[in-house]
Specification:
Blueprint (H helix, E strand, L loop, with lengths): L9 H34 L1 H37 L3 H36 L4 H16 L1 H16 L4 H24 L3 H29 L13 H33 L3 H37 L3 H34 L8 H14 L3 H16 L3 H26 L1 H35 L1
């Protein structure tokens, strides 16, 4: 199921490669959607708020997993495009060892720091214990999150987006049924929601890892010596992984700061935001994954010195994400209220109103963030991480600052307005940086 992304019509190649990635992340988001849905429907509004509150902190850990994924994926893609299979194997083994070490450190830190962090972000007393319980169980399964992410990065580097899609589809659907079983039948409360996710993530991670190792061993043999740990490979991956991790971590910290502002408006506002942001993240994370796929496409073509295909990929990527955004925008803006009913009932009036306003203010601007993520994907694929970080931090700083400022006069609506402002300015920067980088690469390879 491996595919060479350096041949074929770019638009077709990207659709065939990125669409399963898009589907995969949709199913991955079902984990979180299922947790919130079951918590809200079978336990109550406070449980929904607790899961949503804890979710923002899990994104900090996911930032490190994402960095391991994209660092391994981009470097391996480039080597794969160059047909240096010995170096590919060395980088993959190095990534697995480094990822495991990072995960162990984060697990230890997480065990001791989650409760204090929940207090720092103004978590209301009525949900802090459930938020802490949910996070503790999540941290126990952190190794599976990291294993799955690095395995997915390797699949993507090989041009295989279908295998992780299959795993996620099965485990995500299973998670819904296990959630309901543990909460509705066994009456395990928030712990049942967390353990269901733990079990299903563990199964998908182990299966993905076993198949990855088998694929790596079956790669052709070349003259390059295979090393179990390679410092040059680690350095190359770190150049991509560290900025990506910092970027994602700061976004997560920014979201936690925004969450701290939302928390001051009470548990109903937290519940409404928790439900709406799950729907929002379904879209944004899916677009981010498409951007990751474009990074792999860019890296493979850069490795094969096919520079014109990178610009063709940029144009095709923009068209693709616009098409993918349109149904979500229409759905969220017009019938967002009924989607929010999945997480709460009609008696949660205040929470519903908060969630509806979030979706109606933010969703029309998905086109903007989609264009930014396509440009970011190419910047990552060419290892131009400084430009990538400038554009991303601009968005983050604006959104956090404006959330604090506008919330004082406009309430929660002021927080939501900060999203499209940050997205628009950072999109303009990302597009500008893309054209600057492409012009530079074009000149270098023309020599």
């Amino acid at each position: 199921m491996e595919h060479d992304l350096t041949v074929g019509k770019p638009s077709k190649v990207l659709w065939l490669f990125c669409l399963p990635l898009f589907g995969s992340i949709i199913f991955q988001q079902l984990y979180n959607l299922a947790d919130s849905l079951v918590a809200g429907k079978f336990i109550g509004e406070d449980a929904l708020a607790a899961v949503g509150n804890g979710y923002e902190i899990t994104l900090v850990f996911l930032a490190f997993a994402f960095g391991c994924n994209i660092g391994c994926s981009v470097v391996t893609s480039r080597l794969y495009g160059e047909k240096r299979f010995g170096a590919v194997k060395s980088c993959i083994y190095t990534a697995i060892i480094a990822t495991t070490a990072i995960c162990i450190i984060l697990t230890i830190l997480g065990i001791f720091l989650t409760k204090p962090l929940l207090k720092i972000i103004n978590t209301p007393d009525n949900i802090i214990d459930d938020s802490s319980l949910y996070l503790d169980i999540y941290i126990y399964g952190l190794i599976f999150v990291f294993i799955y992410n690095v395995s997915t990065g390797i699949f993507s580097a090989f041009g295989d987006s279908k295998t992780p899609f299959i795993f996620l589809a099965i485990s995500s659907v299973s998670n819904i049924f296990v959630d309901i079983l543990f909460v509705a039948v066994f009456k395990m409360g928030i712990a049942g929601v967390a353990w269901a996710t733990f079990i299903c993530q563990a199964i998908s991670a182990i299966l993905a890892f076993v198949i990855v190792i088998k694929r790596v061993k079956n790669l052709p043999v070349d003259e390059e010596k295979v090393k179990m740990f390679s410092l040059p490979c680690l350095k190359d991956m770190a150049i991509v992984a560290i900025p990506s991790t910092i970027q994602q971590s700061f976004i997560s910290v920014g979201n936690i700061l925004i969450q701290s502002v939302i928390n001051t408006f009470g548990s109903s506002a937290i519940a409404g935001y928790s439900a709406a942001v799950k729907l929002n993240n379904l879209m944004i994370t899916s677009l981010t994954t498409v951007g990751n796929g474009i990074s792999n496409y860019t890296a493979q073509n850069l490795g094969s010195s096919k520079i014109d295909r990178i610009h063709e990929g940029f144009k095709s990527g923009i068209k693709m994400v616009i098409i993918l955004c349109l149904p979500f925008i229409v759905l969220y803006f017009t019938v967002g209220k009924y989607l929010l009913y999945l997480f709460m009932d009609s008696t949660s009036t205040d929470a519903l109103n908060v969630g509806m306003m979030f979706l109606r203010i933010v969703s029309p601007f998905y086109f903007i963030i989609a264009a930014k993520l396509v440009a970011d994907g190419i910047l990552r694929g060419t290892s131009n991480m400084v430009y990538f970080m400038i554009a991303t931090f601009t968005d983050l700083i604006l959104r956090v600052a404006l959330a604090f400022i506008l919330s004082t006069s406009l309430g929660t609506n002021g927080i939501w307005i900060s999203w499209p402002i940050g997205w628009t300015i950072s999109m303009a920067l990302s597009i500008m940086f893309y054209f600057k980088v492409f012009k530079k690469i074009k000149k270098i390879y023309a020599k």
